[in-house]
């Protein structure tokens, strides 16, 4: 577990960028991404196209692995352990068991202890995060709402997870039993969070980051790194925006640097208001 | 005596190093811009992605002042990506990747393979057995004559020192064992004062 969690530790303070081609992967690496997520369509396009979203073609993942030296992540459907086995066989550095793809199992997530490759999973609240950790996830990312360019859901999920950690830290030993029941999470994990005041694995933010200020907001709220999906390659000018988001993630408390890097980036992705998306089209509600 | 230990905090596992420094009774100082370098007794470069850190060293304006400080004798300790940044030469890095040329070693980036090839192993060091975590680790391919080998794994150097610079290809910050940081502060940092 130490080796698996170790790679998540190394990605802290960094930006993980969604890429769909080797060319985009090189742009991401040139901009200072600490890893790339190889996928066939960015979430904004998955949302637009509809249909079933699956693991990417191995050939496409291999072309991205050949193009960059930074770690390469890839997505498997929730519960689709065979897609995860294939990704492990391809030598991807991290598997994202992701709600952005169409779930393959409506009751079970993947047993992530059965793998050598580490997994990241999404969560909208502390109970969900601890259930994923109990299944072997080595990194949690707040889900946000992928493909919207709208940060509001990411903020809601980060505030929910971190706010509950702060409240749980104040709970006495008797109250911790009640917390475990309410969170529907294993008691030992709940007790550990109460004692340490933090999750057992790194907490990153995903879903809706479109600007340097969005990335810095996630970091100031307490995320330890950020994922940017559609926000870079759906914007007018991906390379400078990618670099600006990398710098904003490092200098997240320095408003002068944030002002400097936010200048002249062209139009961000247009984005979608939450009231424009039906409940059934919300990815964050996938997973249990 | 309490020392001010800078931790390069551009990207990577800087927070784990900072908690060791606090545990040892010293004060960690996160370094992101040149003004954070003032008053430091030493500097630690953490693990992370060396190409990311290399670009942020340039854009933040930190590269030149750090290089000058190391040449001026600032005790510096790099782990994994931090070791890559301190090396004389990087093999298999990006063409534009910069390094400080602060220790006479040649380092191959990500030499052991992908994450599924990452491993843990016991290392022989001058301070006895040490448990090493190697994450997509670099390999020290050659060491110059002024470099002292302080730790080996399978006969290969994994912990090296040249004057004020200490470098490890593994991650002492992930195992809860602060002996190497203690060695850095007691031997490398204190030697400088004598």
Category by helix and strand content of chain A: alpha/beta
Q: Report the strand count of chain B.
A: 12
Q: CATH top level of chain B?
A: Alpha Beta
Work out the number of β strands of chain A: 8
Strand order of the largest sheet of chain B: 2-1-3-4-12-11-10-7-8
Share of residues in strands of chain B: 25-35%
Low-pLDDT segments, ≥5 res of chain B: none
What is the 3D form of chain B? globular
Unreliable stretches of chain A (pLDDT < 50, length at least 5) are none
**Arithmetic mean pLDDT of chain B:** 93
What is the name of the CATH architecture of chain B?
Answer: 3-Layer(aba) Sandwich
Oligomer: heterodimer
CATH fold title of chain B: Rossmann fold
- Helix content percent band of chain B: 25-40%
Largest interface: A-B, 35 and 40 residues
**Shape of chain A from CA axes?**
globular
Average pLDDT of chain A, rounded to a whole number, is 95
Secondary-structure element pattern of chain B, one letter each: EHEEHHEHEEEEEEEEH
Radius of gyration of chain A: 18 Å
User: What percentage of amino acids of chain A are in beta strands?
Assistant: 5-15%
Rg of chain B from C-alpha positions?
Answer: 15 Å
Show the helix and strand layout.
The complex is a heterodimer of chains A (288) and B (194).
Chain A: H1 2-10, E1 15-19, H2 22-31, E2 35-38, H3 43-49, H4 58-67, E3 72-77, H5 81-90, E4 94-98, E5 119-123, H6 126-134, E6 139-142, H7 152-169, H8 173-183, H9 187-196, E7 203-205, H10 212-221, E8 226-228, H11 230-233, H12 238-250, H13 255-262
Parallel strand pairs in A: 1-2, 1-8, 2-3, 3-4, 4-5, 5-6, 6-7
Chain B: E1 4-8, H1 14-23, E2 27-31, E3 42-45, H2 50-59, H3 63-71, E4 76-79, H4 81-86, E5 87-91, E6 103-108, E7 119-125, E8 128-134, E9 139-143, E10 148-153, E11 156-162, E12 165-168, H5 179-193
Parallel strand pairs in B: 1-2, 1-3, 3-4, 4-12, 5-6
Antiparallel strand pairs in B: 6-9, 7-8, 7-10, 10-11, 11-12
């Amino acid at each position: 577990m130490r080796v698996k969690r170790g790679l998540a530790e190394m990605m802290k303070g960094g930006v993980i960028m969604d890429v769909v081609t080797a060319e985009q992967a090189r742009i991401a690496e040139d901009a200072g991404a600490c890893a790339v997520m190889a996928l066939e369509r960015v979430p904004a396009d998955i949302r637009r196209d509809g249909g079933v979203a699956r693991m990417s073609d191995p050939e496409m993942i291999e072309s991205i692995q050949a193009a960059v030296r930074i770690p390469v992540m890839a997505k498997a459907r929730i519960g689709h352990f065979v897609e995860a086995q294939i990704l492990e066989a391809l030598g991807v550095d991290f598997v994202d068991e992701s709600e952005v793809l169409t779930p393959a199992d409506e009751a079970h997530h993947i047993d992530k202890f059965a793998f050598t490759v580490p997994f990241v999973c999404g969560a909208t609240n502390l109970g969900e995060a601890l259930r994923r950790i109990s299944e072997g996830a080595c990194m949690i990312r707040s889900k946000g709402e992928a493909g919207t360019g709208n940060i509001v859901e990411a903020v809601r999920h980060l505030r929910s997870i971190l706010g509950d950690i702060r409240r749980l830290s104040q709970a006495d030993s008797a109250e911790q039993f009640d917390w475990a029941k309410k969170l529907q999470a294993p008691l030992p994990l709940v007790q550990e969070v109460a004692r340490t005041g933090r999750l057992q694995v790194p907490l990153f933010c995903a879903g809706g980051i479109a600007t340097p200020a969005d990335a810095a907001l996630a970091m100031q709220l307490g995320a330890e790194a950020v994922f940017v999906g559609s926000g870079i390659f759906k914007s007018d000018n991906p390379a400078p925006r990618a670099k600006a988001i990398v710098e904003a993630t490092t200098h997240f408390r320095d408003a002068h640097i944030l002002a400097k890097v936010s200048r002249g980036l062209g139009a961000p992705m247009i984005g979608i208001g939450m009231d424009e998306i039906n409940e059934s089209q919300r990815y964050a509600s996938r997973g249990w | 005596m309490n020392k001010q230990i800078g931790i390069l905090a551009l990207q990577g596992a800087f927070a784990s190093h900072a908690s060791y420094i606090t545990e040892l009774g010293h004060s960690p100082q996160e370094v992101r811009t040149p003004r954070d370098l003032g008053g430091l007794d030493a500097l630690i470069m953490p693990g992370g992605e060396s190409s990311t850190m290399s670009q942020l060293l340039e854009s933040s304006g930190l590269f030149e002042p750090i290089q000058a400080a190391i040449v001026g004798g600032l005790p510096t300790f790099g782990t994994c990506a931090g070791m890559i940044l301190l090396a004389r030469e990087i093999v298999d890095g990006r063409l534009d990747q910069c390094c400080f040329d602060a220790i006479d070693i040649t380092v191959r980036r990500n030499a052991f393979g992908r994450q599924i090839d990452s491993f843990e192993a016991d290392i022989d060091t001058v301070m006895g057995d040490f448990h090493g975590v190697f994450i997509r680790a670099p390999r020290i391919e050659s060491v110059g004559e002024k470099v002292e080998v302080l730790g080996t794994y399978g006969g290969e150097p994994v912990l090296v020192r040249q004057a004020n610079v200490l470098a490890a290809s593994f991650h002492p910050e992930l195992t809860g064992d602060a002996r190497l940081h203690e060695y850095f502060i007691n031997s490398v940092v204190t030697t400088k004062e004598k």
